[in-house]
Amino acid sequence: MTRKITRAASAGIAPGYMPGFGNDFETEALPEALPRGQNSPQKCNYGLYAEQLSGTAFTAPRGQNERTWCYRIRPSVKHTGRFTKIDMPWWKSAPNVDPDVISLGQYRWDPVPHTDEPLTFVTGMRTMTTAGDVNTQVGMATHIYLANTTMEDDYFYSADSELLVVPQEGLLRFHTELGTIDLAPKEIAILPRGMVYRVEVVEGPARGFVCENYGQKFDLPSRGPIGANCMANPRDFLTPVAAFEDREVPSTVTVKWCGQFHRTKIGHSPLDVVAWHGNYAPVKYDLTTYSPVGAILFDHPDPSIFTVLTAPSGQEGTANIDFVLFRERWMVAEHSFRPPWYHKNIMSELMGNIYGQYDAKPQGFVPGGISLHNMMLPHGPDEPAFEGASNEELKPHKLDNTMSFMFETRFPQHLTAFAANEAPLQDDYIDCWDGLEKKFDGTPGVK
Prior knowledge:
Layout: E1 13-15, E2 25-28, E3 49-54, E4 67-72, E5 84-86, E6 106-109, E7 125-133, E8 138-147, E9 154-158, E10 162-176, E11 179-183, E12 187-191, E13 197-213, E14 237-240, E15 251-257, E16 260-266, E17 273-278, E18 283-286, E19 307-312, E20 319-331, E21 348-356, E22 370-373, H1 383-391, E23 397-409, E24 414-415, H2 417-421
Parallel strand pairs: 9-15
Antiparallel strand pairs: 1-14, 2-17, 3-4, 4-17, 5-16, 6-22, 7-8, 7-24, 8-13, 10-11, 10-12, 10-13, 12-18, 14-18, 15-16, 19-20, 20-23, 21-22, 21-23
EC number: 1.13.11.5
Domain Homogentisate 1,2-dioxygenase N-terminal: 17-287
Family: Belongs to the homogentisate dioxygenase family.
């Protein structure tokens, strides 16, 4: 593989590949900070310490083995002291089954409103659903984040999970151990398990969605008969270039571990990695580079053709989590019902609207809003969408100004008390199907 060194003085983000598959990145913020020929020399340049961050078991298969070597001002054991348990009442982890909450139902929420209360990316996390078990590393949680305050000398990492961040409003800047990522709507970022970072609110207030993945890491789905192109391409996933903070200031580090939160105080910034190489790194991805595929004659394919990322489970073909994107695209099929059809399946589907209008729900599902249809619970188009799709002239049609997504999992998603009692739940959502009428009259022919 060609060696590429990107200086921190450049654009701040490097074209790369989806981590894994044996592809390594290299970047240094100071010349010759990366050692040559071995990962852990007896003495590193600049008096740096060599340290490995492993995202998989040491003996994982080569194509799945993920680790990054960091060359840092202090080893990370100097970034943790004695921990104090703290309360983070709005951030919940599975299992979190509230006996007073009914999770079985078709639910939809308006956007969670902003507040004047100072909230960082971490303290503004509001859990909507949980699934699985964080202690056995299966399942997920979904959150809304509200952020209007920058984390100043305040750092965080999750030992439980990787976070998939989907902005809906505002611009965030993630200062991570391995470099800086700016994140805006129409983009996503993946923050790996164990990666330390702080979040700056560049343009706010900011709001978005988070999928917290307890299980196997997100990866690109196999394309199967689709072949080598379309959907998401590895080259469009970007990694940060090395940048470091050499600051002697009182700081805090908060750690999420087994669903609990702990805080320690240190006297310096923990973002002190001067150079790094490896394949375990945060990434960002521009959702407008996603190329949808679909039917070009008749019929309606399953929504799995819109999968951007998948986190596998132990059962082949059945994901722990799929991240699915419904963006602008052409609809061209003949003699076919074009919106999503009525169905129930084994996956629990939480949808979010980034912007625009979703074709199956032209009313009520607004940008920043969420819907939830749990496993084996029927759902589908509302009455206006059904009537319009059943009677419109089927000519090529472009869906414009639309971007919604789905976090779906093989596990049931349990509502939190916040989602059931405090988030702006649309009590009349289920009424959107009231207008569906019996059309059967016992005679042949299409009605």
